[in-house]
Amino acid sequence: MGGFLRSSRLVVGMGLAVSGALSLSSCSTGRDPLDLSTNEALYRPVGYEVQVPTDRPLALLPIADQRGTIPFEASDSAYPVQWMPDAAWARSMPVMVHEVLLRELQNSGLATSVRSVPAPAAEEVLLEIQLLDARSGWEEREYGRRAVASAAFRVVIKDSANGLGSRAILVDETIQQQYFSRVDPHPPLQPQSFGAALRGAVLKALQLLDVSNATRSGLEAPTELPNFDGSEDEPSNPFGSRGTDR
């Protein structure tokens, strides 16, 4: 496959929430109430579907936790933020995000098959995701609070292995989705706010794989990455989005 899509550009999107009072009971589903992979009150599937058929298999490597290696702005103001601790989640963030991505990929048609494996087969296109940011909190304001969240990935896509076992890098991009609610005495809870940010970041990762043509034989990758920060593809509140479900 010819063509490369490699860039150090940071693709950032922002979603504006409709704030409201939420209860932790609304997050609960079974024994893992704060699990992004199993609780659709926190993360509702994007439902991405390809329009152009694919003909190559894909392997997803375990997600590498690289949080803290690159500084990201999770808030756009100087107000203090009360961050949600990682320990509040039912399981580790990389494990939950990995399961979310794997399921979205398997249901999208972005490859003829999608496996989660530490060592891919030579014919499989390789997808490596690094988790760079995963934060959610409440920003303290004079007349209430504002929910803020950030989800960021480094997305690396490598071609199938050649006869010598090496793989060409087709895509190397960093993407971020930010989420902000309105200031309110009862802003959205932190888990839902992060779920909204994660949903936007996952959508951008799926779009990136799609436009790269990495899983389509004989099609070139575009020379520039399209702009994915349009409002039509970003979450308007923790439970919904505009134009992302298919």
What descriptors fit this protein?
disordered C terminus; 8-stranded mixed beta sheet; elongated
Notes on the protein architecture:
The chain is of the alpha/beta class and 246 residues long. Helix content is 15%, strand content 27%. Strands 1, 2, 3, 4, 5, 6, 7 and 8 form an 8-stranded mixed β-sheet that branches. It starts with a strand and ends in a 34-residue tail after the last helix.
Task: Annotate the secondary structure layout.
Layout: E1 5-16, E2 58-60, E3 64-65, E4 81-83, H1 93-106, E5 114-116, E6 125-141, E7 144-158, E8 169-180, H2 190-212
Parallel strand pairs: 1-8, 2-5, 2-6, 3-6
Antiparallel strand pairs: 4-6, 6-7, 7-8
> Secondary-structure element sequence?
EEEEHEEEEH
Structural class: alpha/beta
Oligomeric state of this protein: single chain
Strand content: 25-35%
Short description:
The chain has 246 residues and is α/β, with parallel strands linked by helices. The chain is 15% helix and 27% strand.
